[in-house]
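Schema walkthrough. Field components (list of strings):
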Amino acid sequence: MKLFHSDASPYVRKVMIVLHETGQLDDVEVLRVTTTTLQSDPDLVAAGPLARLPTLVLDDGQAIYDSRVINRYLNDRAGADLYPTDGRQWSTLVLEALADGILDSALAMVYEGRLRSEDKQSPDVVEAHWAKVARGVQEIEANWLPHLAGPLDIGVIGVGAMLGYLDLRLDARGWRDRAPGLADWFRDHATRPAMVATAPA
Ligand SMILES: N[C@@H](CCC(=O)N[C@@H](CS)C(=O)NCC(=O)O)C(=O)O
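Field assembly_structure (string):
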């Protein structure tokens, strides 16, 4: 399998964490690319119409995307148990969606600064996305710490990758100030070998 990859992409990091946690790292060839919405990598375009990272290309040429589908595929392939089917099933999937939604807004903030010229950037749009990030982090602090303290699942992995991205790109916003319990959890979680091995440079 081939995985289109970029070190800084938090969606790629989720997939890399799953590869580590499920022992499939050696089954994947990593293809590092530079791509943006404005200038898509041509090989990534050839692999799929959205040309987004991550995209996984199977040995028979089938492309699998986006990160949530790739992780589900990798979990099934390894016979792993990152998607509980007991009472945690729906909470796990909601936590995964919450972490991804926070990431979507965090990326929108970063892209606003990178993809638009200064005169076209909207501080209101940036602040509206930050409000979603802040509410999302507060929601995890208020309601999800017991889940995070439980077994590793795809929601827990998503929160780890998401907080890593906030530290990488939005550190100055100080998410820890509004979520001390989450900060404590992340201090431990970030020492997992899969987190250490996938930390962006
Ligand atoms: N929902 C997608 C989001 C993927 C995404 O937005 N990836 C970014 C990199 S972090 C990307 O490829 N941006 C370039 C583009 O949109 O053309 C997923 O979970 O994989």
